[in-house]
Amino acid sequence: MSFSTPRRLGGRDHFPLGLGCMGMSDFYGPADEATSIATIHAALDAGVTYFDTGDFYGSGHNEMLLGRALADRRDKAFVAVKFGALRDPAGGFGGFDARPVAIRNFLAMTLKRLRLDHIDLYMPARILADTPIEEVAGAIGDLIKAGWVRHFGLSEAGAGAIAKAHAVTPVAALQIEYGLTSRSIETSGVLAACRERGIPITAYGVLSRGLLGGSRPGGATDFRAHSPRFQGDNLARNVALADALAAAASRFGVTPAQAAIAWVLSRGEDILPLIGARRPERLAEALATVTRDLPPEAIAAFEAAIPNGAVAGDRYAAEQMAMLDSERAPAA
Question: Residue span of the signal peptide, if any (predicted)?
C-alpha cells in the first residue's frame, strides 16, 4: 500500500501530509522560534504545501511566526486559519465569537500578522448555537467574493452543520480529530456527510497528542497534563495501547508514529493528516511515512493494536467536549 498519492483540496493537489503549527506557540510548553522556523522551512523544502494555524494560538504569535517563515515562499504554501476563540492577557479562554462583524475583525488582524493579502482556507474553530452556521457561511462567502479569502472551511462540525453551511457557501474542507484513538467520525455521520458532498478532511490528533509517538506532558503549561487521556488509570491503559502499536510497528520496520500516520493515510485519498512536528527531526520521521510501501496486513495489525473504542478517556476535558458540534447527538 502506497501513501504518496497527493490530496486534492482547495483547487490544488497537496503533499499527502500537512504541517500543524499550533505547538510552536501554545499548549505544549515552550518552543524555540528558530527551530520552529527551521521546521517550517524543512517542510516547504520537502514539498509540504498545507500549513495550519489559528489566530488564537499564542494570541497571534503563531500567525506572526508562520508569516515570518513564509516571507519569501508564499507561493509554495496553502495557509489554513481557524478563528473565533477569545483569549485574555493571562492566556486563558473567554468564549467564542463567530458573528459576521467579528469574523471581519479577526480576518483583518490575521492578514496583518501573516503578512498576506488573502487566506487560502478560513474556518471557525467551533460551531456554537448562538450564531447560526448559515450566517457564518454567508459572511465568509462575502469575504471570498471580496478576494480576502479563497475557500471556506469548517472545524469539528457535525453532519447537520456541514449540510447547512455547504448549502450557503461550498465547504472546501473539514478539520477534525481523526486517528487510531479518535474514530467517532466513522459512526457519527460526519465522514459520510463529507464524502456525500466531496468535502476532504484534514485530520489532526493523528498521534493522539503525542501519546502514540512516545511524548508525554512536560509541565503545567502543557495542556495534556489536564487531558483525560493523560491522567491516572486512563494514562496507564493508553500507554499499554501505545506499546501494542509500537510492537506492531516494529514488525513492519516503521516507528509507532509512522504506523499511526500510515493508518490515517490508508483511510482514503480525501483525508490529509496534519502533523504537529515542532522540530525538523520529528518532521522528517513523519514525512518518511509517505515513502513506505506497507502491505494491507500491516494496516490491519496497527488497527488490531488499538481497536476502535479501546482508548480510555475523552479527547478533551468535559467543558471542551461540550463545545464540539461533531460530538453532539444529531437532532431527532
Answer: none
